[in-house]
Amino acid sequence: MLKISQLRANVAGRNILKGVDLEVRAGEVHAIMGPNGSGKSTLAQVLAGREDYEITGGSVTFDGADLLAMPAEERARAGLFLGFQYPVEIPGVNNAYLLKAALNAKRKKAGLAEVDAYEFLGLIKAKMKFMGMDESFLSRGVNEGFSGGEKKRNEILQMLVLEPKLALLDETDSGLDIDALKVVAKGVNSLRGADRSIVLVTHYQRLLGYVEPDRVHVFADGRILKSGDKTLALELEARGYDWLREGRVA
Amino acid sequence: MSAARDQDAALRSFEAAWRARPEDRIAAARADAMQRFLALGLPTTRDESWRYTSLRALAGRPFVDAEPAPPARSSWLAGVCAAPVTIVNGRPSSGAPQPAGDPALTIESLRAAIDRDPASLAARLGSIGAAESERWALLNRALFVDGLQVRVAGRAAAPLLIVHSAESARDDAAVHSRVIVDVAAGAEATIVEHHLGGSGHATLVNHATQLHLAPGASVEHYRVFSSDERTTHFDALEVLQGAGSRCRQFTVALGGAMVRANLSGRLDAPGAEHDSYALLVGRGARQLDCVNAIVHAASRTTSRQTARALAAGSSRVVFNSRVLVEAGTAGASSNQSCRGLLLSPTAEIDTRPQLEILADDVKCAHGATTGRLDPNMLFYLLSRGIDRASAQTLLIYAFLDDLLTGMSLPGARRAIEDALIGELPGADLLRSYR
Cβ of A130: how many Cβ atoms within 10 Å? Predict the structure, then answer.
């Protein structure tokens, strides 16, 4: 599904990603954990196609295609979804319109007709109910005036509507109370399937209690330092990150 | 030497037009205005309120009065009222412009009003703005050929649409017209003035509107400019508000080679409320210069000014707003919000909110920002699979959204949105968006 080899990238002239290697197969859930400032979010943004981040080396293939050669909108249509750590407020652009336009962009790419308005409303209402969201959100501006938790739910809602092949969820668990965390986990779990992959970027083990990962990676200083199964997350929770870095230096 | 002579061509042509006019019953008021105008001359960029708009090219053009002409086009705002009043080259197109029987509205041509009661009309023509920034209004007082006097005595049953159309078969025609609206105590009206036309010839339209609100009166006023790219507008709007009156004013500039739109508001008695909105769309080589001056002359008066400026191509958009809170007032409140969006590296937006507070007990705020499309918003939309052109179009439209939603006349809002969409890239997308 996703294969990252020796990926390097600069942000504002500073080298942030320093040779990332990662392979995610179809059906797998991966967790990328690491301290603040380690470059986890940069990796997520680079994969989604953020233009002002400069790729200085390495390669990424997504479903066999050269991901880095595709503009952001193409990546999304090909089935990649980024759940933003800080979802952007866009007053004046209607939430329902964004969802519909995004869905239609993907359908167009797949050679399908635009979604029928009635069908769309049915779909969206069912997904909102599933995510415990009020229908009034549809008529509001994108994330406009949403609380932190509402924004994160909205990201998951978009993900459920778009049904991506690969979902990158950047700190989707941060700032959530326990109830909201459960709802978000429910949404993520509902997307799990043999033909989909999910990458959870997080710095707490908390979410992983609800969404069980197949692989856990420790990200520090711009690369993956260590990989393991879900027990690695528990070990990190108990021991922190420093022992890994010290180990590397030694 | 010829260059020096050319620089006075416009001024001399206005003086010649004035001398050639048959005297009417307000000739003394006109002569006074003309003398003051000639003494001041045309403004230059050395004048503070004309810093951003040069009239050098215009000053060298000899203007002639536009001839009477039949109506040649209809307004895309015609849907807002059953019986619009059309003014072509400054003259009401039907002799008696009384629209469908609304007992709350009395409309007559200014010509008729001058003949009927010249003294009170002459007394009404004085400008409340500073003469230095109102030179075109002075010229208008000297030269307006005709226009309308509208009296609102109660609650108007329907909005009144006034279509100002400039039709000329030659370059350098000048139209001088005026509308005077009196809204009686407690009366209510919605008035839409639509400036359109220009038949492909370089035309100057110098218009003035005076809006007087008696105590408790309520008005929503629109002035919309959608002329062709060879028409220059100088437009002076004067709003005088009595106690507890409410005025909502929308200035929408979607056309013209140059539009200079002044708004002089005076909150003359306690409790008056004034909201003005400017939607300024620059594209091509268009120059839009909007100058607002609001005076809080009484206690517990409120003003809010909202401007959204969009500049594409090599256009230039200026929004200059000044609020003066006079000494001896208490509890005045004022807010100014100007936002500009630059869509090309060669476009320019200048916003200048100014506050002059001579009282102690006031609440005033102002903010001005100008920038390009937010890259974070753009990336968010791209990351959802929206193509770049559509994403940019959506963000541009979103930028104007809160101004459009302020319009409480649905027909006007719809028509203005349609016209606006036609001015923006990605028109098809926006049509489906709505």
Answer: 15
Q: Does A110 touch chain B (CB under 8 A)?
A: no
Q: Is B59 exposed, middle or buried (0-12, 13-18, 19+ CB in 10 A)?
A: middle
CB spacing of B385 vs A52 below 8 angstroms = no
Q: Beta-carbon neighbour count of residue B141 at 10 Å? A: 25
Burial per residue of B369-397, b for 16 or more beta-carbon CB atoms within 10 angstroms, e otherwise: ebeeeeeebbbbbbbbbbbeebbbbbbbb
Is-contact B175 B144, C-beta < 8 A? no
Element (H, E) at B20: helix B9-20
Largest alpha-carbon pair distance within chain B? 69
- Name the nearest CA neighbour of A115 among A47, A90, B5, A107: A107
Rg (CA), chain A: 18
* pLDDT in the model for residue B175: 97
**Amino acid identity, position B149:** Q
Strand partners, B368: B338
Given a cut of 70, is residue A247 above it in pLDDT?
A: no
Contact status of A48 with chain B (Cβ, < 8 Å): yes
Q: Can you read off the two tokens belonging to residue A214? A: 């197949």
Task: Say what the pLDDT of residue A246 is.
Answer: 65
Amino acid at position A243, single letter: W
Residue B127 has pLDDT above 80, yes or no: no
Contact B336, B305 (CB under 8 A): yes
Read off the pLDDT of residues B397-427 as tens digits, 9 standing for 90 and up: 899 988 998 999 999 999 999 999 888 776 6
d(CA B236, CA B249): 13
Between residues B82 and B331, which one has the greater pLDDT? B331
- C-alpha B381, offset from chain centre: 36
Q: What is the pLDDT of residue A209?
A: 87
Mean pLDDT score of chain A, rounded to an integer?
Answer: 91
CA-based nearest residue in chain A for residue B434: A97
| Residues in A touching B401 (Cβ below 8 Å) | 91-92
CA distance A137 to A143: 9
pLDDT tens digits along B14-39: 999 999 999 999 999 999 999 999 99
- Residue A92 forms contact with B (CB below 8 Å): yes
- Residues 6 or more apart in contact with residue B125 via CB below 8 angstroms: B26, B29, B33, B141
What pLDDT sits at residue B96? 54
Q: What's the distance, CA A208 to chain centroid?
A: 14
Strand partners, B353: B321
In contact, A133 and A157? CB cutoff 8 Å: yes
Q: What is the pLDDT of residues A11-28, one digit of tens each?
A: 999 999 999 999 999 999
With beta carbons under 8 A apart, name residues in chain A contacting B376.
88
Cβ contact A71–B382 (<8 Å): yes
pLDDT band at residue A250, thresholds of 50, 70 and 90? very low
Residues near A95 by beta carbon (within 8 Å), at least 6 away in sequence = A137, A138, A139, A140, A141, A142, A143, A154
Facing B399 at nearest CB: one of A71, A92, A98:
A92
**Chain-wide mean pLDDT for chain B?**
92
Predicted local confidence at residue B1, as pLDDT: 42
pTM, full prediction: 0.88
For B57, other C-beta atoms within 10 Å of its C-beta total 10
Dist. CA A107–CA A110, nearest whole Å: 5
C-alpha–C-alpha distance, residues B403 and B278, integer Å: 8
The answer to whether A76 contacts chain B (CB < 8 Å) is yes
Mean pLDDT, rounded, for A218-245? 87
Which chain B residues in 386-415 lie under 8 Å from chain A, judged by CB atoms?
Answer: 386-388, 390-391, 394-395, 397-402
